Every structure is written in structure tokens, then in C-alpha cells.
Amino acid sequence: MHMGPLINLPSNIANSDPEAKKRQKEVGAQHIEATEKKQPEEKRLTKGEKAKLIEERKQKRQEDKLHKQAMKDQLAKKKEKDKKIQQWESGKFALECITAEIDKSVAESPIGGCLLSSLSEKGLSYKLTENLVKGSILWKMDIPDDIAQALFSQSDDCDMKQPSVSNVPYISFVLQAQEFCDLISNGTFFPHVQEVRKKYPTFTICYITNKLMNHINKREQSQYKNNSTTWQRPPVEEVLCKLATHYTNVHSRQCIDEAEVAEHLVGLTSNLAKCKFRKPLTWLSVHANGAIISKGFVDKNLAKKDTWLKALIAIPDIQPRYAMAIKKKYPCMRSLLNEYMDSSKTVLEKELLLSDLKWEDRLGEEAKRLGNKCSRRVYRMLMAQDGDLDAEDP
Question: What is the pTM of this model?
């Protein structure tokens, strides 16, 4: 069976029917018009999204800028606080935060005017109070809370909150010569010490006397001239000696006049303020932080910073250049002690271990040996078991 080619009816109808062709053109035109209207709308939405994106980026940059500025300000505040803490640790503001609480009876005594004027001249604060014990002087430290917390956070009592206002564990009594003599004559001096100790158990006590020996000498001369026996000399020396030998943290100070009393109390106030911030001494702290080092020593700054060098220089007759030679061979105390505790060496070998070391002159050239005397002295100081043994004994 033979079949002819298929005929496209729609296209044929469209070609044959003018109305259908017209309607097709209208539909195409409407579609093109709808497409043209849709394109600008899509473009407008894209521009809005872009504007919104730009605004978001701008806002994010602003937030990042503010965050960086806040971090910078925070870092600057931290540096400033650290610097302030370092200044407090160095004791720069120590004198500004201490206040002497002076009993009114002391202010009304002959020493009062000179003492108050001396404190004012030095810029030290004081307050007239009625203390628990008459005639006493106490001290208080007033440190800002944030500084106090930072300063004492590394101490043994770091779990306890450090108070910003704290008592200094020190109490002084200013006694005129007649008052001190009456306390001794009446047998009430040592009971007075016990009473103060009960009220201030952890405090150091200091008795300051004014014109004591001058007063005693005058009374003795007057009694001798008048041939009188009405006055008996109190055992002042015995009492002061017993105070030094039988009592801990109880001191005495004799002053010749009011000016010396005021000078002593001003110096005491200053030292009590500074010792609060002073670094605690260790068993290797020697000779006032290296003050014994000679001024002509080239490496003086190095010796002050090195504990091992300071310990060596503190040994009598061990000059800084000898200590440098020992440190060059044995960089630390442990390295030298290892040699000293070597059981395979005899005592004589250990004593002469350093004798052949040579110290260097200012040009860095080796000079003389340390010698047996120096070597023996170092060994006996570091390994001493008998305190009565002399370093030079054979």
C-alpha cells in the first residue's frame, strides 16, 4: 500500500486562514510585550538587591571598625593599668596611700608640734584619733581596690579578697623620759608590753623615748648637789636589755630631742609604706641586692641581675672578677654543687677544684689563677657543716 507525505495541518490551516494568522501575530506581540515589561522589573529588583548588599557591607565594615577601635581602646586601657600596677609595685605611690593615726595625747605632748610639722613637710598624711592604747601611733594603707586585687593576686592569700584599707602591723609609743622612768619604777612597764600584745598580737611594738639619758643625768646631778636620796635611779639599762633578749618584735629607740623623735617617726612612716611593695627576700637574697659590688666593676649591671653572681660576690674576699671566672666554668650553682657532691672526689680535690681557673682582665685576656685560698673559701662557704670552722684553716 502506498502512502503519500504527511501534511502539517496547523501550519497549513494557518497559511490558508488569514484570521488564524492574525491571531497568532497578536499572541506573539503580546508575548513580546510581556517579556519587555518583565525585563525592566527584573533589572529594578537586581538593583535593589545590590543596594541592599552594599548597605550590608558598609554596615559590616563600620561594625568591624568599631570592634577594632574597641579592642584598641581595651588594649590601651590594659597597658595603662599594667603600667600603673608596675608603678605601684615599685613603691612610687607608697607615700601617698599611708596615713599615720596619732593618738591625741601624743599631739598634745612636747613632741606633737614638731612631729606634725615634719609629717606635713614630707607630704605624709596623718590623722589625730583616740587609739585603743593611749600614747600610741598606728598606720593604715589605703590602696585602690583594683590595684590591691592585682598586687596581691599572686600572694599566698590570693583566695582571700585583699582589703583596700589595711592596718600596718606596727605600733609605736612616744614616751617622755619621766613617763618611761615612772613605768619602770612602778613595775608597770612589762605589764604594759603584755597588754599591748594582747590587743595587737601580730604587731611589732616600738618604744621611743625622748631625752631619757639627759633626764637621768640631770636628776643624778641635782640629787648629788642637794645631797638628797629621795630619788632612786630606775634600772633603765636592765629593762632595755631584757626587752631585747626576752621579747620578740619589741624594740626600743632612744632619741636625744624632739627633732630626732620626729625624724625617726617620719622615716618609719616612709619605710612602712615602701616595705608593703618591696619584693620579699629569699634565701639567696644577699647584701642589699648587690650593693657590695664595687663601682669599678665593668659588668656591674650583669652582676646585679644574676643571683648566682651575687651569691659568689657575697662570699668574703671573692672579688667580682673571680666570680665571673667561676660562672664562666659553672653557669649556675647546681653545676658547681654537682661537682662538690661527687663521691668519687676527695675533700682536698673539691677544695682545690677552682684553683686553676683564670680570671680575665678588662681586655678579656686571661690573667692569674684564682688560687687555692679562693677555691677553698668558695667550697667551705657552700658546703659548710661546721659554723665554727674558719675558711682559712687547713
Answer: 0.56
Sign of the dihedral through C-alpha 341, 344, 347, 350:
negative
Q: How far apart are CA 87 and CA 75, in angstroms?
A: 18
| Sign of torsion over alpha carbons 284, 285, 287, 289 | positive
User: Quick one: pLDDT at residue 6?
Assistant: 47
CB 100, CB 137: distance < 8 Å = yes
Q: pLDDT for 207-261, tens place per residue?
A: 999 999 998 888 888 877 877 777 788 899 999 999 888 888 999 999 998 999 9
In degrees rounded to 5, what are phi and psi of residue 211? 60, 40
DSSP β-ladder status, 125-129 and 98-103: parallel
Q: 377 CB contacts (<8 Å, ≥6 apart)?
A: 315, 316, 317, 318, 391, 392
pLDDT digits (tens, 9 = 90+) for 94-144: 788 889 999 999 988 888 889 999 999 988 999 999 988 988 999 998 877
**Can you count the helices (H) and strands (E) in the chain?**
17, 9
What beta strand segments (E) does the chain contain? 98-103, 125-129, 136-142, 165-167, 170-176, 204-210, 250-255, 358-360, 366-369
Q: Which three cell numbers stand for residue 155?
A: 600572694
